[in-house]
Design a protein that fits this description.
Layout lengths: L26 E4 L9 H10 L4 E4 L3 H4 L6
Parallel strand pairs: 1-2
């Protein structure tokens, strides 16, 4: 998912590691389900301003799979 207003740099990291991203990952986590969608752009902008170039996020299955198997 890409927040409006952010210019994301896209890169590819293959699982076989023949091509490696050159540079350091500076990552942080965000629990998007605890932040109102109106504030996502602000939070992601703050993370970028803090120098992060990667973001980890969790997927809460209890939000997305209300009924088991569906």
């Amino acid at each position: 998912m890409r927040a409006a207003g952010l210019n994301a740099i896209q890169f590819y990291i293959p699982w076989n590691f023949h091509e490696i991203y050159e540079g350091n990952y500076i990552s942080g986590s965000i629990h998007y389900f605890r932040v109102h969608p109106d504030q996502w752009n602000d939070r992601l902008s703050r993370m970028r301003a803090a120098g992060l170039n990667a973001i980890q996020f969790y997927i809460p299955w209890n939000f997305h799979e209300i009924y088991e198997g569906k």
